[in-house]
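ingest -> validate -> predict -> emit
validate: passed (alphabet ok, no gaps, 226 aa)
predict: started
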Amino acid sequence: MKNDRIKIKVCCIANGAEAELAIGAGADAIGLVSAMPSGPGVIEEAVIREVAQAVRGRVETFLLTSLRDAEAIIAQHGRCGTTTIQLTDSVEGGAYAELRAGLAGYPGIPGVKLVQVIHVVDESSIDEACAVAPHVDALLLDSGNPKLRVKELGGTGRRHDWSVSRRLIEAVDVPVFLAGGLRPGNAREAIETVNPYGLDICSGVRTDGKLDPAKLRAFMEEARGA
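emit:
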């Protein structure tokens, strides 16, 4: 599923200043990373809540969580207050219905969305996506590896096999974001090759770990012009 205007999510937002920079550049969403077993961009839940409140109504806010228990995820959302929950690992027992029930009509933030990350490793990821898609609002394709002893759940900066991603997108009926190894210089290729609903960028628009205005602007111009 794809819209006419590619959506851009800028992830690994560190603070309010980076959020404003991303919004000013034209981001449709920002990603706020809670505790992870590995990877960049982790910030305290209090900072997530502060940023989410500051930008409410102007941009979608994604809470990246590595939690797998529905009750724990619902409680974390209560502390953070984002518009969307990005599940970077599988949910225990496939408890999406429990998540939906717990999040329904959440005070102050109605209609909290669920986005499930699919770490594209091979063609088996297509079957995984088809099984999960009916239970979530969108999928996000990344290049991690949840099977490692220390799980990789995103932020690797690696590019996976985009031909698999293209076939996955054609097989599901929900919006799909593409992440992993994106940067200025390959945004157009990503859009033309994969045909995603949106792009999710982190390390590709950073210099020494900080959001780089020039890289961000270049990425946005390339993506919007594709």
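The radius of gyration is 16 Å.
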